[in-house]
Specification:
Shape: elongated
Oligomer: single chain
Structural class: alpha+beta
Number of helices: 6
Radius of gyration: 25 Å
Strand content: 35-45%
Number of domains: 3
Largest sheet: 12 strands, antiparallel
Strand order of the largest sheet: 14-11-12-13-25-24-23-18-21-20-19-22
CATH superfamily of the largest domain: DNA Polymerase III, subunit A, domain 2
Distance between the termini: 67 Å
């Protein structure tokens, strides 16, 4: 194998694939990136056996071939080479190492046979559906903060991607919950999405897909099966196993009859919560919210650190009540509100609270209260 490739092109492609490679691997081949030179391009692949990322870059290929080399080491070498450099990659059976050369720099990296590299099959995937990159990014951004990190309930460790029919319209929906809060975002389903199986996409896959969306050109092709999901971002593609489990019936958690409506300036609310939470006990981070006509009083009491009270104006004209929340969860939800105002819908101090964004009716957030 022998080829020359521009540094920027190789760095971008390597950046896309190398992040899937775990820093510590008991299987040596999983620390490597598969390099395949053919025609006028270099294809790259990396995997952790649960997820595979592919990308390719234009290259001047003198001799085609395949080999694997240490992913992180190769990425760091390319990253540190000067802008605009032309990089030569060369491998032959005579020297059991990959030669990397650019200008006056020379590197020789250990290799493993390409035949040992595991390849993920695409069998059983649905026909491609095309989604706007910005719309898919919105679904991920509005929901991923609520994905659980608790390994015991593994079926909550991902984003539930599925279609629903509401008022005769099919919608593509993403839902995440950790049992304490829930985030839901949906959009009109793209053509061909109706009837797709609902899948729980793992947290790591969601993170990688969101990263690849930064470089996507307008649209993303999506394929789904009961066992796998595949995203195609132009030249790059991500294939991943999905979580084998049943996502809970989240619609039972979303309150329908919360009739105490509070409208508040979202930025002022977030700043106030952040300030009073400064002295909250680290574990519970409990904030008491006192709601009465025209104002909200946020209170935090900590036996060791003292007390904090802050008052903000709100639009509310009902009966006074008090309710408690985890400050971190309040701030996470406030960070997702796109407009100036946030809309809270309360029932009573022991029931779930619904939070809405008046500028985006396709999102809903549910917060479970704390005892105060």
């Amino acid at each position: 194998m022998k080829l020359t490739i521009e540094r920027a092109a190789l760095l971008k492609a390597l950046g896309h694939v190398q992040s899937v490679v775990e820093r510590r691997n008991t299987i040596p081949i999983l620390s490597n990136v598969l390099l395949s030179a053919d025609g006028g391009s270099l294809a790259l692949a990396a995997t952790d056996l649960d997820m595979e990322i592919l990308d390719e870059a234009i290259a001047a290929v003198g001799t085609g071939g395949q080999i694997t080399a240490p992913a992180h080491t190769l990425y760091e070498i390319v990253r540190k080479l000067p802008d605009g450099a032309d990089i030569e990659l060369r491998f032959s059976g005579e020297d059991p190492r990959l030669a990397v050369a650019a200008g006056r720099s020379r590197f020789n990296l250990p290799v493993l046979p390409a035949g040992d590299f595991p390849v993920m099959s695409n069998e059983g995937l649905s026909d491609k559906i095309t989604v706007e990159a910005a719309a898919l990014a919105r679904l991920i951004d509005r929901t991923r903060f609520a994905i659980s990190t608790e390994e015991t309930r593994y079926y909550l460790n991902g984003l539930y991607l599925h279609t629903v029919v509401e008022n005769g319209e099919t919608r593509l929906r993403a839902v995440a919950t950790d049992g304490h809060r829930l985030a839901l975002a949906d959009m009109p389903a793209p053509e061909g999405a109706a009837g797709l199986p609902g899948v729980i996409v793992p947290r790591k896959t969601i993170q990688e897909a969101r990263r690849l969306l930064e470089d996507a050109d307008g649209t993303v092709d999506l394929q789904i099966s009961q066992a796998k999901v595949r995203f195609e971002f132009g030249r790059a593609a991500l294939t991943s196993k999905v979580i084998d489990g049943s996502f809970p019936d989240y619609m039972r958690v979303i309150p329908k009859d919360n009739n105490k409506l509070v409208s508040v300036d979202n930025a002022l609310f977030a700043e106030a919560v952040d300030r009073v939470a400064t002295i909250s006990a680290e574990k519970s981070r409990s904030v008491k919210m006192g709601v009465e006509p025209g104002r909200m009083v946020l209170t935090v009491r900590n036996m060791e650190a003292g007390q904090a009270v802050e008052e903000i104006e709100i639009d509310y004209d009902g009966e006074p009540f008090e309710i408690g929340f985890n400050a971190r969860y309040l701030l996470d939800v406030a960070g997702q509100i796109g407009g100036e105002m946030a809309e809270f819908r309360f029932a009573d101090p022991a029931s779930p609270t619904l939070v809405l964004d008046p500028t985006d009716r396709g999102v809903q957030y549910v917060l479970m209260p704390l005892r105060v």
